[in-house]
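2024-03-11 09:14:02 INFO worker-7 job=invfold-0412 stage=load source=structure_tokens
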């Protein structure tokens, strides 16, 4: 299980922006945001391996499942990926919303990144910090051209 090279727990002020994704559903009924601590990030990242089992995905190149046999090339693609974390409160429960993508990390270090389209390499998922369960996995849609 690979964790992206770039990860950041965003400040609560970025919460509304994070939930403004334009080509995937995001968690509904969020009543507030909370600061995600480094210990809670570590807890989340230790449980990422469940994503592949539950949703048929894991960290992978932005173009989708890789057909590359070269592990160096695959690692390079994985190194381009990033995760942003924001603490959300839904029905009184604490969750972390993960915003996953690839490319332009410089813009995503402090501000919520909203990527329209992009396909399965850009996705979001909720992590319940009490039950250690993931839910509401949603990948971005694809742009269609006529």
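2024-03-11 09:14:09 INFO worker-7 stage=emit residues=146
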């Amino acid at each position: 299980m690979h964790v992206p090279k770039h990860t950041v727990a965003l400040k609560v002020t970025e919460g509304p922006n994070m939930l403004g994704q334009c080509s995937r559903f995001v968690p509904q009924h969020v009543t507030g945001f909370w600061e995600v601590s480094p210990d809670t990030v570590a807890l989340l990242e230790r449980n990422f391996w469940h994503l592949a089992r539950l949703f048929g995905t894991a960290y992978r190149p932005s173009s989708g499942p890789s057909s590359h046999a070269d592990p160096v090339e695959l690692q390079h693609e994985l190194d381009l990926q990033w995760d942003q974390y924001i603490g959300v409160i839904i029905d009184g429960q604490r969750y972390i919303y993960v915003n996953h993508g690839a490319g332009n990390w410089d813009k995503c270090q402090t501000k919520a990144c909203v990527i329209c389209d992009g396909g399965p390499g850009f996705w979001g998922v909720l992590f319940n910090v009490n039950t250690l369960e993931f839910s509401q996995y949603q990948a971005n849609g694809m742009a269609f051209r006529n």
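2024-03-11 09:14:09 INFO worker-7 stage=report msg="The longest strand covers residues 81-90."
2024-03-11 09:14:10 INFO worker-7 job finished
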